[in-house]
Every structure is written in structure tokens, then in C-alpha cells.
Amino acid sequence: MEEHCNGNSEAYAKIPKIKFSKLFINGEFVDSVSGKKFETIDPRSGEVIAEVAAGDKEDVDLAVKAARFAFDHGPWPRMSGGERRKIMMKLANLIEENLEELAALETIDAGKLFKWCKIIDIPNSIDLLQYYAGAADKIHGSTLKMCNGQYQSYTLREPVGVVGHIIPWNFPSIMFFMKTAPALAAGCAMIVKPAEQTPLSALYYAYLAKQAGIPDGVLNVVPGYGATAGAALCSHMNVDMISFTGSTETGRKVLRAAADSNLKIGEICMAGSRVFVQEGIYDKLVEKLSVMANHWVVGDPFDPSAQQGPQAHKGQYEKVLTYIEHGKREGATLLAGGKPIGEKGYYVQPTIFIDVKDDMRIAKEEIFGPVMSLMKFKTIEEAIERANSTQYGLAAGIVTNSLNIANTVSRSVRAGIVWINCYFTLDPDCPYGGYKMSGYGRDQGLEAVDKYLQTKSVVTPVYNSPWLILISS
Ligand code: ADP
């Protein structure tokens, strides 16, 4: 494998100056009430990029108060869907104008490859905004005929109110818009708690949202830790709904906090890294993967030739290395990688384990790093059964030339999305979310707007109302 970790990033791209590091509440950048800050770290070097204001309960209180006021009295939920659409389109344009800078910001904060941020993370965020901007003026209720024939009725779809969005570090920009864009289209006001490892792009988006004309208080961003800012948001009585993406363990805490307060909706999601390979092609694939791993370029995420950057933060880096040790100890064979790279930063070799058994930790738990586990199977039925014998079910992929196998597997695997002869293909129009412990609720797709809306029934008699007769006589 080629290692380029100590490349000179400045040679590849302009490293952005950090412009926004305070909380964004009610349209202003402000310090935290306690004055506390936390460091956000560049995973390429382990060095501090910026000190960011650390939100806690008092700051969440202020942000919720601002959002509550914006929702209860402000223009955003009251303006026409068409007006919200125009403002959201303007925000999408502003992001496009600042694409290079936002991509670089995401790269230094999350260690994502710069070339991918420019063609995937930031453009997909723009797509999400434009998609849901288009939905903002197409929110309809239905007309009801009613069983008893005396009345007619219709439903109105109204925004749920103040929403708390809790976001993980793996896709800071895409997750930000996967959650905020449908909620904005619906007319909600919101508080975003970005992951403590990757708060910078969210603050930049808050700034651009104000430039685009999103009214103060509608979109607040409160960076901080999960146990402080995140927990305060989940248990706040004035938050009507929580939308959460992160680990299952945290998802449980979020649901518990929601149940103990005013019953909001939770949503959790996870991804897996188990690869089942049919016995006839197993050896050949192992050979090919071994060659690929040896040519895989790990390096500075600004380096255009890099195929893999650093892990996003130290905790994740250590977690990945610990899982690799579990794999070795439990008897899996290391085909490639298995070690950290370089003296500084959080780089890990692309790692492939073969002869992995279903009950090993690397096969059962989510690693969220460059670690692949290969498992051999004989029949399709066996592969389906083993693929389903996990507590998770966010996504699955099938590689086959057989239409029958593709149809059978895609209908049998219990996962929220199944990719056939492709992988990780996401689109704003395609709902995304997990089965089983990978959560409930869906992001993306038109149905995602629905979760930020609630239904009101309006009923009136078709013929002379007995009430009117009563009043007029
Ligand atoms: P990951 O494995 O993606 O780091 P986490 O579930 O730890 O997953 O984090 C996802 C998001 O949840 C982050 O923004 C984090 O700060 C937040 N979070 C962590 N703990 C809590 C909590 N107790 N309550 C609310 N949010 C939390």
C-alpha cells in the first residue's frame, strides 16, 4: 500500500481560515453562557484547528427559546411554501458559490478526501436543499368523504414545531441537510447539535442561511458534547421532535430522554462491513483484494491521488485499531493491513480479514473504519440467513449477474436499502433509514417531509347544520 500521509496539503488546496466557531442562536454568533470551549482537531495531524464554543443546557435553553418564538410568532411557518422554496434555493446557491471552501473545511475537520467533498458531500447537500425546496410548495392534505355522509372534512398538513437535530461525524454536511432541509420545507424551527468532532461546516451553513434570508431563530446551531448539549436538547420540554442519527447505544439514551420528557420521535442508524462471498469465487476474490489493498493509496485527504484519508477523530482511530486486535485474537486471518500509519494523525491501513466467523466481534459489531471481513457461503439461502442474523439493518448490497438472485436477495434481506450491483448510491429522492436496531423513520425521499408535519382534520356539515338551525332559531 502506498502511504502519502505527510504530504503538503497547501500544495493541493487552500486551507480555509476558520471564520465561525461560536454558537449560532437567534441569528447571531455568540459565546457559550459558561464561556467554555472545546478543541476541534485536524485528523491529518492531531493538531487543534480551532476552539469552538461548547454549548450546554443554558445555551440549549436559549436556542430552544429562540426557535420556539420563531415558530410560534415568526414568519417562517406562516409564509407560503413558495416563499420558503425561494429562500432555500438561495441558500443552495450560496453553498455552491462557497463550494471549494466548504469542501476544504469538511476535509480538515472530518479527514474526508477533498476531491470527494467537492463532488459528493457538498454537491449532495445542495441537491438535498434543492429537492426539499421544491417540496415546500407541494405540501397537501386530503379531502375526506366521511362515513356518515352528513359531513365533509379535509386535512391540513402543518409543521410539527421545534425540532432538535442531532448529527454524527461521518457525513457532517449531508446529514445536516438530510435533516434540516425537509424540516425547513415543512416550516419548522430547529436546533442543530453537530457532532463534537465535526462542528465547523454546520456553523458555516448557519451563516449562509442568514444571508439567504432564513429568519432569525429558525435555524440555530449549538455545538457541544453529546452528554451535555445533546442530552439537554433531547430532554427539553419545548422541543416537539428529535431527529437523531448516530450509534445505537446513544439512540437508546435519546429515546429514553424523549420518553421521559414530551415523547418525541427518535431515529437511529448504523452501517455494517460484512462481505459474504460464494465459495466458488472466494479464493479468486481474496487474491484480487490482496492486490488492491497493496495499491490502495492512503494519504493526506487534500492529495488528489489519495483513496483513503485519516479516521475522523482519535476516538474512532483507537476504536478501529482495537477491533483489528479483536479480529486477530478471535482467530480471523489478516489478509492485508492491520496497523496504524505514520507518526502523526489518525491514519489506519486498509485492513482485510478473511476466514471470519459470524460470531466474531468484527462480524457482529460496527467498526466504522477501513476494515473488511470476508465470510464464505455455499447457497443463497444460507447467505440470506446469515446476512439477516444481525441486529442491524441499515443497508445491504448484492453483486450478481442473476436477475433471480438479485430479486430474491433484495426481497429477503432485512435492510432499509439494498443496492444491486452498486453500493452507497444515495439520492434525495430515495428514502434512507434502517430496519431493526438501525432505527426507524426515514431521511430523504418526499416522505421525509411528512415526519416534520402533523395532520389536522377540519370538519363541516354538507347539508344544513343542526348547530346553525339551533343558533338562528
Ligand atoms: P458516533 O458513533 O457516530 O460517534 P454517537 O451516537 O456517539 O455516534 O454520536 C452521534 C451524535 O449524538 C453526536 O452529535 C453526539 O454528540 C450525540 N450524542 C452523544 N451522546 C448523546 C446523548 N446522551 N444525548 C444526545 N445526543 C448525544
TrEMBL record:
Q: Output this protein's name.
A: Aldehyde dehydrogenase domain
Q: Of which family is this protein a member?
A: Belongs to the aldehyde dehydrogenase family.
Q: Where are the transmembrane segments?
A: none
Keywords tagged on the record: NAD, Oxidoreductase
* Subunit field text: Homotetramer.
Which PANTHER family does the record associate with it? Answer: ALDEHYDE DEHYDROGENASE-RELATED
Q: Which residues form the Aldehyde dehydrogenase domain?
A: 29-264, 266-458
Q: Which Pfam families match?
A: Aldedh (PF00171)
A single Gene Ontology MF term assigned here is: aldehyde dehydrogenase [NAD(P)+] activity
